[in-house]
Design a protein that fits this description.
InterPro entries: AB_hydrolase_1 (IPR000073), AB_hydrolase_fold (IPR029058). This is AB hydrolase-1 domain-containing protein. It comes from Solitalea longa. By secondary structure, this protein is α/β, with parallel strands linked by helices. It has 2 domains: 209 residues, 3-Layer(aba) Sandwich (Rossmann fold), CATH 3.40.50; 65 residues, no CATH class. 44% of the residues lie in helices and 18% in strands.
């Protein structure tokens, strides 16, 4: 693996890319605190999503907020369909980012922040590099208990082939979203987000690529809990009471396995990265 040089002079110039043999990662920088935090946004967003949480986190952390695969300016060097369908395992992803972590952390432990599907990447680092993690912030996280529909779409070949056909079928996509919303499988806020993200052929391709490429990001929550407890990692969990995609029952079940966790259930849906959560996190950091 070839990691690009990211010495202090480069950071002063705010160079926003980190390059490996397989990926060109783009990231945003927020905060000026002494602790290092890596952040991974939700579907359809960019690394800029976490600027909303800078008021609560910025004094304590230096935040490197990455664009996910197929989002923003992060890109695979080989984005052929067979590569996307092969996906990337947690071990492979951790190997891609470890040189970056080594450089910015200078051997100190890091924190992780993630929202929705971005939590799969945070969980990958947590699982593969638990000794390097001090605390984690999971917001409406995917991965702890995967959404069944997304998992089938990613891993079951006939369903994945159907998703591929939807890239060029906007009317079918629109009908499917209306049906899922009517059946309460997705809430209104998520339906609104998906309406925007599935609006063009290009955005539907991003959806297919993201879901498919994440097919190898599979985790065992009991084993994750054991790693968290064994490494004394502080875990903050935030869920929306009205979230039907990743409901608060996931947080309740997972926090029951943890020795050092904070669970907060906000009276909201899936769209949680907002000023209200900013205030909640600020209060938690002041108390815990």
């Amino acid at each position: 693996m070839r990691a690009s040089s990211i010495d202090d002079n480069i950071f002063k110039r705010r160079m926003p890319f980190f390059e490996t043999d397989q990926v060109k990662f783009h990231y945003e920088e927020y905060g000026s605190g002494p602790n290092i935090m890596l952040a991974f946004h939700g579907f359809g967003m960019r690394g800029t999503q976490f600027r909303h949480l800078e008021p609560s986190l910025g004094a304590r952390y230096k935040i490197y907020s990455f664009d996910l695969f197929f989002h923003g300016h992060t890109s695979l060097k080989n984005n052929a369909l067979d590569v996307i369908r092969k996906g990337m395992t947690p071990t492979e992803f951790a190997a891609q980012l470890k040189p970056f972590i080594d450089q910015v952390s200078k051997s100190a432990k890091i924190s992780l922040l993630s929202y929705s599907i971005g939590s799969c990447l945070a969980l990958a680092l947590l699982q593969e590099l638990p000794e390097m993690v001090e605390e984690v912030f999971f917001i409406a996280p995917d991965g702890i208990k995967p959404n069944k529909l997304l998992r089938i779409g990613a891993s079951f070949k006939p369903a994945n082939n159907f998703l591929w056909k939807l890239v060029n079928s906007p009317k079918v996509v629109n009908f499917s979203l209306r049906l899922l919303n009517k059946l309460n499988y997705i809430d209104d806020s998520l339906c609104s987000i998906l309406d925007r993200e599935f609006g063009t052929t290009e955005s539907r391709m991003v959806s297919y690529n993201t879901i498919t490429f994440n097919s190898k990001m599979v985790f065992d929550k009991e084993k994750l809990a054991q790693l968290i407890n064994a490494n004394n990692i502080k875990c903050y969990l935030y869920f929306g009471r009205k979230d039907v995609l990743f409901p608060p029952s996931i947080g309740k079940e997972f926090s029951a396995l943890l020795e050092n966790s904070v669970l907060h259930i906000e009276d909201d849906g899936h769209d949680l990265v907002n000023p209200r959560l900013n205030n909640v996190i600020a209060n938690h950091l002041a108390v815990y």
